[in-house]
Amino acid sequence: MHAAMFLVLTVWSLSAASAEPNAPRSYEPIDRISGYVAGETRLFFQEPSFSDQREQDVSLAAQPEYYHQWTNGVAVTFTPFGRIDSADPERTHWDIRELNLLYPYENWFFRVGVTRVFWGATEFVHLVDIINQTDWIEHIDREDKLGQPMVEFSFTKNWGTLDFFVLPYFRERTFPGRHGRLRPEVVIDTDEAVYESPSEQRNIDIVGRYSRSFGSLDWGIYIFRGTSREPLLVPADYLDPNVPPGSRLVPFYEKATQAGTDLQWVTGNWLWKLEALYHSGYLDPYFAATGGLEYTFWGIAGSKTDFGLLAEYAYDERGDDITTTSIFDNDVFLGMRLTPNDTAGTQLLMGVMQDVEESESLMTIEASRRFGSHWRLSLDAWFFLSTPRDSLLYNFRNDDFVRLEMAYHF
Amino acid sequence: MDPWMEEHMQRTATTRVIPAMAMLLLSPFLCPAQTPDEKGRAIAEEADHRYNGYGDSTAQLRMILRNRQGQTSQRRLRVRSLEVADGTKSLCIFDSPADVKQTILLTHTHTTAPDDQWLYLPALKRVRRIAAQNRSGSFVSSEFSYEDIATHVMEKYTYRWLRDEACDGQDCHVIERRPIDSRDSGYKRQVVWLDKSEYRMLKVDYYDRKDSLLKTLTFKDYHKYLDQWWRPCDMNMVNHQNGKSSRLIWSDFAFRTGLTENDFNQANLATIR
After folding, report:
1. What is the pTM of this model?
2. What's the average model confidence in pLDDT over B84-92?
3. In this structure, are residues A155 and A13 in contact, taking their beta carbons and an 8 Å threshold?
């Protein structure tokens, strides 16, 4: 807590010292409701591996957003989210993605409330993104996140941007229940999460980040201190001898200090990306990194179509340790991105992942296009091509799926 | 004097006014017969000088995309721009179609270095760097390329005066501009019609790299803002080779609104509406 106070005071004195007398800028008054309603189905190709799992699922989701901005720039955002799922009661869930007040003033801003913040550069693994917990049950691509309560202070000068976050409440990762697909054989009991911090979910986490753009290069570095977003999955009988062995897994959230960096660099048709972190927590400290490049062929064959080739690599010092929830320890990704630049806004991203040492491999496809001016059809497919018995992917050996979503945007 | 005015006046004085004045005063003595290249460049400089110096501006834009069969689709966006020491910073904030609402394209155009460009994706709150060298790529699937939309940078082209002729009922200069570095442009050359009284662009013919006529852009419905800056509210680009066209309808122009570099910082894109 003292550290947080110190940060806020330091930043406050920094901003006071550098305030410049400028005419206050007038913001456009905005009052609007937008968002989407979407029907989704996940079609699995194989029989489920475990007896309680349902074969297919159909669901309905909605994410409306209310936004109001006053002429002095103060703004309120409210974005609730909810899903009703036919197969897994755990996947029927709701969340407040955003509910915050933004107060901008010249070269700084304050934000209080529930917010979503993303940091990162690479396409296949999102490694350094840490502020928000993953809403894993939504999609296994880790791009859906739970709203994080926070106080944020951001300060920008010509030498870069400083961001300070105080995160007073911890969000637990969502996992499929016993009826859901894409889960380990032993069900993860999210109701019995265990914390290293005695204050459990009320531990106050803090993050400081510095970022800067040097012409064609964007760079950021952060330090996080608090409860790790990444749980260790522990058999419940390790913690409580009265529980029958092998009945369920319990998420254990450790306290950790993590330093992370992300970098994007453009040169000609090349885009270089790097994310790296050092994590020190309950178990041995470790280093992890992911990076790669994307080369784009613009307007292939005289058309408007852009074609990109991607190559990325992910490394995690922990290896394929069973206590981790990450499968990307020494893996190569090769992918392609096709952007026809048509009026339907069609997009296609395909990738294959191959472990360098093990036989683990998977393939993903992400495609979408617009119909009319309000509808968007998305197709996501995940194929677990090779799932050796000693790999975390073994759990998903029969879970190849295509996810189809039709969303109405307003 | 406010800092913006000060900076602007210095810049104008050093880069524009002095060379322009010097040319006007000295040209009758030093080069009695101005070459077509010199005349072309002088016309382009005068047009550039009259277009710029606005400080910052905001506007609403409606794009109407029309395919060969005449079917149309629309996009709405808000555009903000700011003149800075080495170029222009601009933001395009999408309001429609609904599925791309709040997507933001941020561009820093530099006079000498390659442009910088970022794309903000609201679903993930993610800022992606994009290769801005792709100046010949289509701007949101329209017949406009990024190059056609971006602020014109004098230093990236050579100029030549071709002739004077009537255009749209007005006396016009007709000049040609060619990219110095062919990687900067998707065109071999552009032919530009500017009216003699106000140096406003009325028409541009774009010739592809094989030097055949690709597109024609016409400007209509000019309005004068802050008693100084002329802006066209209707720009129509016709692609002669694929039969498609794109029309830009501008409205709600505002100048000197108090935008600062902070409003164009890639680190703050998630808070910009």
Report:
1. 0.89
2. 93
3. no
